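Morning!

This is the sequence you dropped in the shared folder:
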Amino acid sequence: MEVKIKLSNPSKMPCYSWDLQALDDCIGSKDSEGNLVPACTICYATEGFYVMLNAIKLREYNQEDWKRDSWTDEFVYILRDQTFFRWFSSGDIKWWKLAQKILEVMERTPHCKHWLPTRMLKPKFKKHVAIINKMAKLPNVSVRFSSDSIDGTYTKEHGSTIIPYDDNRPGVKICRAYDNGGKCGDCRACWDKNVPVIAYVMHGRKAKKLLRTVA
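The structure's back. Tokens below.
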């Protein structure tokens, strides 16, 4: 099969991902007044390797490529030998029709564990919420509703949050990638449906700058 799909290969993770542009394709990144939510003001995907020309061009390509009729079949094909996959190390499910296609890919690849972090489970995105909830019911899919906060605030509906420091707070699984050279290593907690909430310690230049201003 000829495959035109382009995947990302984030150095942190043990698998590939499929990405869109941070912020521009994250319509859940803004509050009711049109301002970026706190978590998105320090988005790691707006700096470093993510702003290199090749990375930008790949995400621009993906913005149009998913609309092809054969996209879903191709995706199922490229995941035939994969055991883990992440959707959106950058960006989010901006289009409802894209969400439909992603659901079909998940349903047709039960051998692969999918991790989907998203802000599209907010009530104002009713059509997205309905289809993402279908994803979450699949045994091979871990949907993590990203909290907008950077102080660890979350509700029972959230699957991930950001914390300023590693303070071993109860009720959450803290990502230890920063203790492991910025890599997942053998941890697969983000893909584990039995882990309710994961906390990511703030990282990146923007995050460090913010921490200095409030220290």
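Headline: The first helix runs from residue 38 to 41.

More detail when I'm at my desk.
O.
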